[in-house]
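Usage

Read records sequentially. Each one opens with the input sequence:
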Amino acid sequence: MPFLSATLDRVKPSPTIAVSNMARELKAAGKDVIGLGAGEPDFDTPDNIKQAAKAAIDAGKTKYTAVDGIPELKEAICAKLKRDNGLEYTPAQVSVGTGGKQILYNALVATMNPGDEVIIPAPYWVSYPDMVLLAGGEPVIAEASIQTGFKLTADQLEAAITPKTKWFIFNSPSNPTGAGYTRAELKELTDVLMRHPHVWVMTDDMYEHLTYGDFEFCTPAQVEPGLYDRTLTCNGVSKAYAMTGWRIGYAAGPEKLIAAMRKIQSQSTSNPCSISQWAAVEALNGPQDFIAENNKVFQRRRDMVVEMLNAAEGISCPVPEGAFYVYPSVAGCIGKTSAGGVKIDNDETFAKALLEEKGVAVVFGAAFGLSPNFRVSYATSDDALKEACTRIRDFCATLT
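and closes with the structure output:
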């Protein structure tokens, strides 16, 4: 009898975490490496949020809490969803977990049965398909191309739906592309979903506040109120509030689903960190003006990275609407050979040769379900980005 679960044979470790770990190990060994793999703001958590956490510690708020969130945080989430998205929820419709990843995973574990299908647009966040597999479902990948701005069309969504479809996972702005759906584009998708009442919507809004120019964020239940009763609106404080390590994610949806997710959490992790919850209350209720200031920095970095990468031979880099990623194509580099003698036959060999020969760590596109591309996170310093893009440009110039 095998000791390890056969379910593990269906999944793989996170490639983005693997790249970040590799960059750290090479740096620790004394190598000159610039890591562009981590999806983590380089800004510090705002002082008012840190002070709220310290106050919670001083007040002794260090005990177990309700399994899926303190009442004060659920109230703050309800207020945020009404203020920012025009969505009305009660605390009984809210679940708080240890990061956005747990929220998504709880929902899948609570709902998936063998044979159930989940439609996932590609490029996708690396964890979506594996979480579906761990929950016993089957991921159905619907590829969005660079020609459509990495956005799924209504026809593609329609073609992917079957009688076995249970969920459609939607992420805008997107990790890994930064692509954001306009209200009109999202309405085309929600019109399709309205014709298929058995399909639920899991919307990952983690990058909601990280948008640039005149792009306006919207979420499915906001665009189509008819989807309200079968939508789980997921979000968290990690990205916009620079609170990745605090590990607070949340979701709002039908009470029956939230209760099922609570049951899963009660028998796994139990409550999220009490101190992090009080910090998240302040994040959602406190001043929001720093977000716009941070976005100015992100937009400047985005524009610089896009310009520099488009100047690299063989690379084409679209301009994303949000998040802090770009997802350039390396189609013009495929088939060439690096100065170190590596044949570039796909985006993975491109990324490995770039790391070995130029010390730049990026995540190859196959990890996100669409090649030949790679993901760059520009949530790091201007100097590091300039140097990294210069090295990428030099690397491409030596390909023959």
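Summary fields computed downstream for this record:
- The chain is about 40% helix and 10% strand.
- The radius of gyration is 21 Å.
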